[in-house]
Design brief:
mainly alpha, four-stranded mixed sheet, 4 strands
């Protein structure tokens, strides 16, 4: 509905401002808008997943051939449980489950997310550092959680929210570039910081603009993919697939891993995609400090309490 409204506004606005030529321009803008939302943004989110603290990007590779981490085995195991116990109708009635494409990123960061609009064109991206720190049961829970998000449509909504919020951030990034170009002082400090091996942060005026826009993006992500859906998937996995103790322990271990090594920088537009993150990760982010109450995914502590009535489990 939101995409339709935006498309109609572009077409009618172009026609009102420029007549026939404006209508053609509005149609071109609509075409570019849909190309970005449906084609470019999901691919870009996979390509930029491996950004490290120094800004380097590790390209993800699809899991083919050898599978030392047993990720495909976990995916097939989950699908076999669904078929054997006939559980798919309870959480996603009328949906034909299938295994998504799995991507592994050789990165020291800890992350896992799913992206895509349809079951047949969905992807799960996991960092190698996260995989190596999990047991097989925890990997099964992680894959099952992401596949359930895909089947219930939450991944599609999150992918669209990420694309739209990236468009909102685009003018702010342009402002960053213009300010750094015009401000020789900012360029001098940036050069000194790079020589010292420190991370270059945004300039003060653009950071204030970003901090003002980040709550709007987070609220939009929370409205698109409400936190209640996360609790529903947690309860369903705990009751039918993993057990309350196993899944709550997996969440506890993930929380401990993220607390020990949180991501250095989290873009507000990427919050719609992140699924098994914690308030610790976001609370230590420089750009989103103080905005954790607006996150779309509830904190791990509240999720574990909802499962076992105790924290830690």
């Amino acid at each position: 509905m939101l995409l339709i409204v935006i498309s109609v506004i572009l077409l009618l606005g172009g026609a009102a401002l420029g007549g026939r030529f404006g209508l053609v321009a509005g149609f071109g803008a609509t075409l570019i808008f849909h190309t970005w939302v449906f084609l470019l943004s999901p691919r870009l989110s996979r390509a930029r997943a491996g950004r490290d603290r120094l800004g380097h990007i590790a390209s993800p590779h699809e899991l083919e051939g050898l599978d030392p981490w047993r990720l495909r085995e976990a995916s097939e195991d989950f699908l076999n449980q669904l078929e054997r116990l006939q559980l798919s109708r309870a959480i996603a009635p009328g949906v034909r489950w299938c295994s998504p494409r799995l991507w592994v990123v050789d990165s020291d960061e800890l992350f896992c997310f799913s992206t895509g609009y349809t079951l047949s064109h969905s992807h799960i991206v996991i960092s190698q550092s996260l995989i190596e720190g999990l047991s097989y049961e925890e990997k099964l829970g992680l894959i099952a959680y992401e596949m359930t998000r895909i089947a219930t449509g939450q991944t599609a909504l999150a992918t669209g929210a990420r694309a739209l919020s990236t468009l909102i951030e685009a003018p702010l990034r342009v402002l960053d570039f213009v300010w750094r170009t015009l401000s020789f002082e900012a360029r001098r400090r940036s050069l000194q910081a790079r020589r010292r091996g420190r991370r270059v942060t945004a300039s003060r005026p653009s950071r204030r603009f970003r901090n003002a826009a980040a709550p709007l993006i987070l609220r939009f992500s929370a409205w698109i993919a409400p936190a209640s859906g996360v609790y529903d998937i947690d309860q369903w996995l705990a009751q039918n697939v993993l057990g309350r103790r196993t899944w709550s322990q997996a969440l506890w271990n993930l929380d401990a891993m993220f607390a020990a090594r949180p991501r250095w920088d989290v873009s507000a537009s990427d919050l719609a995609l992140e699924s098994v993150h914690t308030s610790t990760r976001l609370g230590r982010s420089q750009d989103l400090q103080g905005l954790t109450v607006l996150q779309a995914v509830p904190a791990t502590k509240r999720r574990i309490l909802a499962l076992t009535d105790q924290f830690p489990p």
